[in-house]
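User: Last request for today: this protein with flavin-adenine dinucleotide, please.
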Amino acid sequence: MHVLSLRPRAGIESSYEYVEGWGMAVGMHARVLRPRSTEEIAQCYELARAAGSTLTFRGGGNSYGDASTPGAGMVLDVSRMNRVLSFDSTTGIATLEPGVTIEKLWKTILPLGFWPRVVSGTMFPTVAGALAANIHGKNNFAVGTIGDACLEFDLVLPSGEVKTCNRERESELFHAAIGGFGMLGCFSRIVLQTKRVYSGNVRVRGESTRDLREMMQYFEAHKCTSDYLVGWIDCFSGGDASGRGLIHDAQNLHAGEDTDPARSLTVAHQELPANILGLFPKSQVWRILRLFNHDLGMRTINAAKYVAGRMEGMGQPYLQSHAGFSFLLDYVPNWKWAYGRARATHGLIQYQPFVPHAVAHDVHSEILERCRRAGHVPYLGVFKRHRPDPFWLTHAVDGWSFALDFKVDPARREGLWKLCDELTELVIGAGGRFYFAKDLVIAAEDTARFLPQERLAAFARLKRACDPETLIEGQLYRRAFRDWIAA
Ligand SMILES: Cc1cc2nc3c(=O)[nH]c(=O)nc-3n(C[C@H](O)[C@H](O)[C@H](O)COP(=O)(O)OP(=O)(O)OC[C@H]3O[C@@H](n4cnc5c(N)ncnc54)[C@H](O)[C@@H]3O)c2cc1C
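Assistant: Here's the final one, the structure of the complex with flavin-adenine dinucleotide:
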């Protein structure tokens, strides 16, 4: 967000800013309110109502597309409510304000021998944004989503009423608001179960794979014994080598395996190195990446990464810190700037289809092939294994996702959206789903085709009950939900 001016109002911190999706391909100016308490959240609703405006909730702004950009109204940013309210180091239960980031959470609990059950590929999301998106990690196949690790939350409704929700109490709201992308109310307190760890390191093994089938076979053979599995794919490579890549397979250490846990469990041990390859200050690496941010450059980088991966695959397993393994993308601060920084015209989108196991190989292979044929080759492709969960709008299926990063530039934007529309038809036809935290292309009619009808109808009923005036309305709501909620 880029601050233009500051104007306090009704005691709540407020400013007029440019608010954009993380991928920079969408953004607009808006008034941003930053409450510091549950009472101030309720006042934000009143402010929006009095101004005839809508409200969109925002955490760390790490959703690639428009999940936390405003429709036309104000933004409620929870980042000032960022206290760890309590942590029980016998049970691993953390009670958190909504703006606590994943970074703050792990830095608080790791020295006590705990790690969040579910983290995203970056540590900068807030727990509220993570819960609203129902994020998954590289262990989704084993432990589910962050919703599965959530014990309870408080949700402030537009009426000002605070609902305490868990699996027994307000169970419908619990299962709808997790993964509900902030359409029902504002999280003001979140209780998460974290997990015990006996070392600040995980044991990592690299496995190079020649094609998509080999990668999937490896995942299937190891999913009952590995704690984390993630695959990188070279999307440029075609023919017999289509889908070639590198798997990272990691396991937590058992009690007693780490000879010096007091050292490895420190925050200092987790810090990502300040220089890449010992040479380049990491803050400047995006400038180097920018020189390669075209098809030829990215083809070269992907090929080089594959060769390096083959060598890694021949080596021995190695120890890596939890932060180093989990937040690989944070190694290069602002790497997205390599995609260009012109507001809402350049940047990147991520397209992440989730496809059922039985058809995943064929559908994902076809997606890769169509991208290459259309001349829109993803610069980064990440493959994961998933399991279903009980949350109403969940993206997760018993199957596989393929997260594809596409470069956006004005000359090719229309063609890219057309390709995504074609891929969406393919995925929906195969019984697949999409993840709104990564999305900027799905239309309302697509939403109504890939989410189960009874879940959508129940969600629409809850939306009308919780927010009868439609005070909460962001860009994602307008694009992908409003039509069928109003129907
Ligand atoms: C580099 C990178 C890697 C990523 N890797 C992964 C990954 O591995 N797995 C994964 O699942 N996701 C991943 N993501 C996506 C990211 O985890 C989600 O977009 C997450 O929602 C971001 O949290 P945030 O705090 O930034 O929320 P925002 O993006 O600001 O908001 C996300 C949603 O939460 C809602 N919201 C925010 N605060 C509240 C509140 N108090 N009450 C109710 N609703 C609220 C917003 O309205 C919005 O709909 C990645 C993103 C990036 C940039």
